Amino acid sequence: MKLYYTPGACSLASHIVAVEAGLPLHLSKVDLKEHKCEDGSDFNAVNPKGYIPALVLDNGETLTEGVAIMQYLADQSPASGLAPAVGTMARYRLQEWLTFISSEVHKGFGPLWNPTIPEEVKQGARDRLARRFTWLDQELAARTYLMGDTFTAADSYLFTVVNWCGFHNVDLAPYANLRAYMDRVRGRAKVQQAMKEEGLV
Ligand SMILES: N[C@@H](CCC(=O)N[C@@H](CS)C(=O)NCC(=O)O)C(=O)O
């Protein structure tokens, strides 16, 4: 399988899931400004939607959308516990987390990445993220990971997007539980491995 990624972007979440699942993975770095792959080829030919992550399977099929990619990768290694079995209530809980992270946190950062957006609109985005982080901080008060004691795909996703706070002047100081959680996830050997493979540490 080949994962198209950009260092530290949302594709890191899929990368972490693959490493945690012990799956062999080829990586292809994408320049998102130029929409070019490492070998100079056009990334739009891989994903016509123009964004990472994209996963090319061994049979040549391409899967896009991080939430689908993460679940696909996790399901290749059921014993990893990265995704509970399909059809169980726990699986719907995982999907609940992945949807929350995608629409409320990942896309909540959207205006902050855009240099043409006025500062007051960016501040609105920061305020909205602060409300989500306040709730997350309460949720994490008595839990090691989002789903309990087991690290899941939801954790790799939340870690990846909350990690962007440093780029955007989003202060995590008020959220002690969320900060402790970020340190816990960052400290995992497989998370470090994925970050090293992307040149982030
Ligand atoms: N709906 C997609 C969105 C992925 C996404 O936001 N990717 C960003 C990087 S984190 C990107 O490639 N942006 C470049 C672009 O949209 O042209 C998903 O959830 O996988």
List keywords for this structure.
single chain; 201 residues; alpha+beta; Glutaredoxin; Glutathione S-transferase Yfyf (Class Pi), Chain A, domain 2; 2 domains; five-stranded mixed sheet; binds glutathione
Summarize this entry quickly.
With 201 residues, the chain is of the alpha+beta class. The chain contains 8 helices and 5 strands; from the N terminus they run βαββββααααααα. It folds into 2 domains: 2-79 and 190-197, Glutaredoxin, CATH 3.40.30.10; 83-188, Glutathione S-transferase Yfyf (Class Pi), Chain A, domain 2.
Please characterize this protein's 3D structure.
- This protein has two domains: 2-79 and 190-197, Glutaredoxin (3-Layer(aba) Sandwich), CATH 3.40.30; 83-188, Up-down Bundle (Glutathione S-transferase Yfyf (Class Pi), Chain A, domain 2), CATH 1.20.1050.
- The protein has 201 residues and is of the alpha+beta class.
- It starts with a strand and ends with a helix.
- The chain has a five-stranded mixed β-sheet with strand order 3-2-1-4-5, with helices on one face.
- The chain is globular, with a radius of gyration of 17 Å.
- It has helices spanning 11-20, 66-75, 89-106, 110-113, 119-139, 153-162, 176-186, 189-197; strands at 2-5, 26-31, 36-37, 54-56, 62-64.
- The protein binds glutathione.
